[in-house]
Amino acid sequence: MKFIDLSIPIINPEELIFDPPLTQPHIEYGNHDRGAEEMGFIFSRLKPEHLPIGKGWITESLTLGTHTGTHMDAPWHFAPIQDRAIGERKAMTIDDFPLEWGIGPLIVLNCTDYEEGYVLTPKDVDAKLANIGHKLKEGDILCVHTNAPKHYGTKEYINHGIGMGKEATLHIIRQGVHVVGIDAWSWDAPFTLTAKKWKKSVREKKPNTSIIWEGHFAGIELGYFQMEKMMNLDKVPPVGATIYCFPVKIARASAGWVRAVATIPE
Q1: Looking at CB atoms within 10 Å, which of 53, 56, 81, 250 has the fewest?
Q2: Domain span at residue 187?
Q3: Residue pLDDT, tens place only, 161-196
Q4: Is there a domain that residue 5 lies in?
Q5: Is 2 among the domain residues?
């Protein structure tokens, strides 16, 4: 069995950049000497020479958002309700994630042939599935490979990739898919590119509200869970791999960090 890591690291922006300034994480690293001092607060009169190599434990402190790093969005992120198309109910938060949805056949659509900012339609999805000879079924986990990984670790990462349109997203979910993913910053097209389209429509006095966060807002009609900022989707086959993707259980949260991993039979 071959294992493929599909998750980017949570890392200080001085090393690699995956988010805009307002949402970048900060990691404060401890050291083993300070750890020895901290242990002394618990064990009175403890000195470094009392420890195996004169060093104590080490810990880190993190400041980050629930959407930092490779993470999974819950329907609660999209809106306070979900499933309006089949029976409206309160949107699920990340701690509601059904564990049985965290393992499934991994289906990868290679969308690197589209221009930056292109928004996929149901026909595009069907064409990509036909190219790999696969028909979606209940429990499949569909992930989208884009050109965004070419810009991993740079401030340009958030400005690259394609988007999944509302109808394309609903088309996927209607076929029994509960979890999707993408290796770009967002399931939707980059905000910078969509913003240009929005400005143009406003300037022409025909505001096109349908393009605003349309892939995410699909969750209002049919709830689904969505992974963003994945990696190495080009290192797994279009079909045949299994993905494991369990989000961290954060009470009542809109998202949770996820260590997504694929296995490929050898």
Answers
A1: 53
A2: 71-264
A3: 999 999 999 999 999 999 999 999 999 999 999 999
A4: no
A5: no
Nearest-angstrom CA–CA distance, 234 and 106:
12
Nearest to 183 by CA among 5, 2, 12, 64: 5
Strands 179-182 vs 141-145: parallel, antiparallel or unpaired: parallel
Element housing 195 (H / E): helix 191-203
Residue 244: what residue type? Y
Q: Are 261 and 101 in contact (CB under 8 A)?
A: no
In angstroms, the CA 35 to CA 57 distance is 5
Write down the residue that tokens 């690293």 correspond to. Answer: 29
Residue-wise pLDDT tens digits, 24-54: 999 999 999 999 999 999 999 999 999 999 9
Closest CA to 77 of 224, 241, 234, 232: 224
The structure tokens 């988007």 sit at 163
